[in-house]
Every structure is written in structure tokens, then in C-alpha cells.
Amino acid sequence: MSWLAELLEQNSSDPRERLELGQQILSQLQISRLSSDSTLLNDFCDLVVQWLSGSNYKVALLAVEIIDVAIEVSADVISPYLLDRATALVERLGDSKQSVREAMVQLLAALANTPHCSPQAVLERISFGLNHRQWLVRIGTMHVVRVVLENRRRFVEPQIHRMIPSLCHLMVDPNIDVREVAASTLVVIFWHLGENVLSSIRKRQLIPEPKRCIGVKKFKMETFSFLDGSFTGSEKGVHQ
């Protein structure tokens, strides 16, 4: 029996026992790759998703750490199995603990960079989160989109373009935090994909005029801030 199978058999519903078992799994992952056995990999992913979905945030954070290390040492074998569970991972973007939400954003962004798991596939799998009933999931999904766009822009333009109508709809979301993040996300998209995106939004009337004006103003303000910072930085170099 492999080390992973032995540890998986020790799974318990007790949070304290899960924390102890999680540390054992982490220690073993530091020195051993994951097996390529599909049954074991499915059981392993089921376990970490179960822990993520539980009510104990310490166990949830430990599950994220385990997945992070598993990706680091065995991305080639584990990534497809994690991608199959993208729905469950996205749900944790709405966790009540900010630390868990932030960890999940980084985890999903990291998954987009692993072998056998493309950024395009990750964006396709998480896109439903933009229309999720839980506002924190909508926000978390936008954060993942931004990180992936900033890291892998030339690979994900088609996926980003398909998300634009949903992002525009979030500009009139009932939740003010969602509206703010949607505006900022669209600004990032304008930055990376060009002002033709803005022209397309205007032409298709995807955002009500007042909201669109706010987005344009925000884009121009951030552009000016960036250029002003660059100019100031260059002047400092001249005078030093």
C-alpha cells in the first residue's frame, strides 16, 4: 500500500485529527511525488475538497496548503483532477473567512499555470462564479480573472471577451462592493486589451450610460496616475 493510500484511510470528521493528518500529508509531499494512480488521485482530491467545504477554517486553510504543495511537486498528475473539481473550489471563494477566500484566489490562479491545465480551461470552469448567488463568490471570481489576465494575457483574450457581458452586468449589481470590483476589473481589461473593448461595450450598450461614464472616468484617472508616476520616476532618475 502506498503512503498516500495509508494516510487517506486515516481521514476523520474530527477537526483536530484532520489537522494532524494534514501535517503528515504535507510532510510526505515534501519528499514524495503523488502517485499517478487515478483512484488514489480522485480519493486525494475528494479528501481535500471535503476539508475545504467543512466549517473549520483552520482545516480549510490546511487543505489549501496541501493542494498548493501538491501542485508544486506533482502538477502534471494532479492538475486535471483539481480542474474537474473547479466548481467546489469556486464555492470556497465565498468562505466566511477572508484568509480562506484570499488563499483560494491564489490557488485558482496558480492552477491556471500548471502543466495539463491551461489558463483558458480555468477561466472557462470558473466563469459561472460571476453569476453566483453569493456576492463574495462573484467578487472572488473577478479577482481570479484579474490575476490570470495579468499573468497570461495573450493566452486568454477570447475567454475574457466572453466574460465582458457578465462583468458589465455586475456594474449594476445590488451589492456596492461587487460594483466596485466589477468597475476595477473592467479597467484592468481596458488596460490589457485596449480601448476597443470600451468601444464594443458602448456599441452593444452593455452598461447603462451613467455607469459607463463612471467606468471611463475611473479608467482615465488610473491611466493618468500611472503616467504621472512614470514621469515622476524618470525625473527622479535625472536629478539623482
TrEMBL record:
User: Where do the HEAT repeat units fall?
Assistant: 163-200
Q: Name one GO biological process term.
A: microtubule cytoskeleton organization
Where do the TOG domain residues begin and end? 1-219
Keywords linked to the UniProt accession: Repeat
Signal peptide span per the entry?
Answer: none
Instruction: Write the protein's name.
Output: TOG domain-containing protein
Q: Where does the source fall among the domains of life?
A: Eukaryota
